[in-house]
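To the wet lab folks,

You asked to see what we're planning to order before we commit. Fair enough. Below is the target structure as tokens, and below that is the sequence we designed to fit it. If anything looks off to you, flag it before the synthesis order goes out.
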């Protein structure tokens, strides 16, 4: 097990450096040596993603670095997911995420989704052009804690209000928090439509999601 722990320090470094092949290799070795998936995630993967997120916040690294780290993390996580199925306590919380109806942009949304996964959330990624009905159905079906909406166009950002109204009508509004983000979105806009939170980048989204979950 000592050897496995030494190897897992390499997983932390691989995620920090965005090295996919190394992250996958070390994770496979750790699983073969009997290390629990949750220990791999909590002690190495999450800490690696938190470290790259902190570097992004301080301006030491940039979006391409975040994308590479997220890619490495997802490669490792794909190995662990089958071993964790059915274990509800394996995750901090459950997030439904999507780009709103009429908007086909997904790079920023996918980065946020990857950061959520890397930091211990279960993520249901609905993709792009997502209707209010699809957001509500996914939240109900998956017993989501948070709905996270993205928009990159001023012409589509107002659809976020329709989703929140539909959430109200469905009776879920008191049970599910709403986070919004995207280039044209602001904190003032988020407040005006009744969202619980706005964040401007992927790392901030993770921090805010943890606050919202803890407040429940």
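Sequence we intend to order:
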């Amino acid at each position: 097990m000592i050897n496995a722990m030494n190897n897992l320090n390499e997983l932390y470094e691989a995620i920090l450096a965005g090295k996919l092949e190394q992250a996958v290799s070390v994770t496979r070795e750790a699983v073969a040596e009997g290390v629990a998936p949750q220990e791999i995630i909590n002690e190495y993967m999450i800490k690696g993603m938190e470290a790259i997120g902190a570097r992004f916040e301080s301006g030491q690294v940039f979006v391409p670095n975040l994308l590479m780290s997220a890619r490495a993390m997802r490669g490792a996580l794909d190995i662990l997911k089958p071993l964790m199925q059915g274990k509800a306590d394996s995750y901090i919380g459950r997030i439904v995420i999507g780009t709103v109806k009429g908007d086909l942009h997904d790079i920023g949304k996918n980065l946020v989704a990857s950061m959520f996964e890397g930091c211990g959330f279960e993520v249901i990624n609905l993709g792009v052009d997502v209707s209010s009905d699809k957001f509500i159905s996914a939240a109900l079906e998956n017993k989501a804690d948070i709905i996270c909406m993205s928009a990159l166009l001023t012409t589509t950002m107002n659809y976020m209000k329709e989703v929140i109204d539909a959430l109200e009508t469905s009776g879920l509004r008191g049970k599910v928090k709403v986070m919004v983000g995207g280039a044209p979105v602001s904190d003032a806009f988020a407040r005006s439509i009744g969202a619980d939170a706005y964040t401007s980048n992927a790392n901030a989204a993770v921090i805010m999601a943890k606050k919202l979950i803890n407040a429940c």
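Structural context that might help your review: The chain has ten helices and five strands. The chain has two domains: 1-84, 93-213.

Thanks,
Computational group
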